[in-house]
Amino acid sequence: MKNDIFNPIRVTATLQDKEYCFETGRVANQADGAVWMQCGGTVVLVTVCSQTLESSKGFFPLTVEYAERMYAAGRIPGSFFRREIGRPSERETLVSRLIDRPIRPLFPKGLMQDVQVLATVLSADAENDPDILAMTGASAAIHLSSLPFDGPVVGARVGRINGQFVLNPTISQRKISDLELVFAASSSALTMVEGEAKFVPEDILIDALEWGREQVQPLIAAQEELRRLAGKEKMPFTPHVDDPVLVGRVAELCSKAGLEASMCIADKGERKEARKKVKDAVMAGLAEDPAWADNEAALAEVPDLIAAREKAFVRERIVKEGVRIDGRNTTTVRPIQIQASVLPRTHGSAIFRRGETKSLAVTTLGSSVDEQRVDSLHGDCIKTFMLHYNFPPFSVGEVKPVRLSRREIGHGALAEKSLRPVLPSNEDFPFTIRVVSETVESNGSSSMAAVCGGCLSLMDAGVPISAPVAGVAMGLIKEGDNFIILTDILGDEDAMGDMDFKVAGTAEGVTGIQMDIKVEGLSTDIMRAAMRQAREGRLHILEEMRKVLPEPRKELSPYAPQHKELYVNPDIIRLIIGPGGKNIKAITTATGSAVDIDDSGKISIFAPTAEALERTCEMILYYDQRPEIGKNYTGKVKKILEIGCIVEILPNVEALVHISQLDTVRVPQVSNVVSLGEEMVVKVIEINGDRIRASRKAVLLEEQGHEWKPEDTSRPARSEGHDRGDRKGGHGRGGHRERH
After folding, report:
1. Which of 305, 318, 545, 725 could form a disulfide with 643, with the two C-beta atoms 3.0–4.6 Å apart?
2. 690 known ligand binder
3. pTM of the model
4. Is pLDDT at 4 greater than 80 in this prediction?
5. Has 380 been labeled as part of a binding site?
6. Which of 561, 350, 313, 307 is nearest to 453 (CA)?
7. Region Disordered: start and end of each range (predicted)?
8. In 10 A of CB 467, how many CB atoms?
9. pLDDT tens profile 195-240
């Protein structure tokens, strides 16, 4: 065997007093490449396998799957089956995207291999997040394998605590950091960025990324060393070379068919139709050409050759003339239109249109029962804010199966990160908030439209956000050492450019960022220029939003839940809940309200209507009433004594009705007037600390037309034959002797 199971090949690197271990040879030896990646008590196994394709699929079939095993944290899954279910969680999907995005561009174009990368979390120590280990481990596994790969790269995270950058902060440190940037870097440049910040200036973000790239270089060297010790020979790969004769013929036919004119049409639909006509004309011309008519292999390459001509023309026009597909210059944002309160029964809604991209955003407010509970490695966590992004096929005029894609999950997560910093605290605004962004039309930058529309819908719903948030997508055309930054890119500019750089934030600073590139990497100068240009675009969009909604609405929608907080004596919480939850269930069933009870005595009520809220408060406060002298209460006889009876006049509040106060005439024996469990109306006549006296006699006198006065029910004189027991709490020896 190449590697004994008890003697694997191991390479380590130390970054800021943390040791990162790359190991291969202990497990998964039948995979093309496998790396056991460890930091502290966190372990991730990453493998890569491939098989040769019989024919091209028209795209590179790379599959990346990240999975968290609950045993890694000593937990049993909370699913019904008590096992990790087949569908990945939102967290697993987002990490899969983090792994995929930096490695996909590093495989050579035209590679005829079906590639699968699997990252499995085997151990989690609740401090070192496995996501960045999975990113680095994926690069290392591919670098070890026989697959051609223009790596390695490293995944890492940068935080900032008290103004100081921290590399790969622990989970506890991230809670006090004002920025969190996950990035991938090669030996010379950044290749991917995603993160969030709390209104951090653009220059600080660039400094953080450049600092982080420099810090992770030992992990690049460790991967190179691991490959030297255990790497496989790379499979032969010869890049495809286009036939120059065919290229020339396609160029000639494209020119005749008006390709350049088609790429100058501003309207997306019209441009799409014109491009189709060009393609049809080129294919028809080749079909009539004896040199190519029967060459199926050559004809199959023609669509890619036409696309290459389109891309070259668009890029050249931008570089030489500074004019883009729709006629804009490089810094102009497309025309913006906004309409708020478009849906009559939702809690908040808005349509945000930028060019041919249009988002319908809807905000819904809920109670604590609507919180999202997520089963994770580190225990159940609760989300009170959710943003969901939908991209139906009609938004681009296509027919496709309707299902939730990784892209939709990723775009929703980015928009959620971007809006989260401006939301009020749960103490100030104790609602669960859900925003849904429906992409109803799309021509680029729909995720940033979700940020803008989502912010507007929150304001329309009356959510007291601290500041408006807007987002813009930036593009890049890079030719040699020269580069041009594009503001607010179209869908075609995204496909034909070298970068998709999304930046969201307030006028004060950045709250969300995501960058994907298609070149080897970006220098600090390019990123700094892109960030500054993005700020200009963002400020313009914020001003357009301010014209429609300058601030959140002062009141919530009448259709939103009605909320109120009550504070009761903690001792009576058990009464409100009741045996087995009987009382609180009766309240919520009768009113339709959601009631959240804290042990401190704080009760939070969410009711569907104002009337339901008032009724819920009444039913709860019934259990927290204080008796008042002179007030009548309907109570139940709980105990019969020789000297009178004990009546429960309020929940957990009892009063003594002395035998002299049971009737307007003399009562020789208590049982002659009352029975156990009987209801009677009594008046409270004395409160002495926890001791309460009540009178049925006073109520009867009032019914007979006599006005009750406190002296009418004063404590009876001792000469009365039946009062001897009214001594020392009503249980003195006098009462005992009367029985004999």
Report:
1. 725
2. no
3. 0.86
4. no
5. no
6. 350
7. 703-740
8. 16
9. 999 999 999 999 999 999 999 999 999 999 999 999 999 999 999 8
